[in-house]
């Protein structure tokens, strides 16, 4: 019983970490998109394709 609870806790912790990572990426994406829009007048379509390409290439997303 205790072992099963431990395994469930580990699984929940992994899920939580995945969700937090996705949220971090989304926050950084929107932050970068807003920065590009404000400073370089880059539209959302370009910004999305830029980040999508970076993610597909396995590159780190730039952080301000």
Automatic annotation (TrEMBL):
Family annotation (InterPro entries): DUF4670
Superkingdom, taxonomy of origin: Eukaryota
Protein name as catalogued: Uncharacterized protein
Taxonomic path: Eukaryota, Metazoa, Chordata, Tunicata, Ascidiacea
């Amino acid at each position: 019983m205790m072992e099963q609870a431990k395994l469930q806790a580990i699984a929940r912790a992994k899920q939580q970490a995945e969700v937090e990572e996705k949220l971090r990426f989304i926050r950084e994406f929107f932050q970068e998109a807003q920065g590009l829009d404000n400073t370089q007048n880059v539209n959302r379509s370009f910004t999305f394709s830029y980040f999508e390409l970076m993610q597909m290439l396995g590159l780190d997303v730039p952080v301000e």
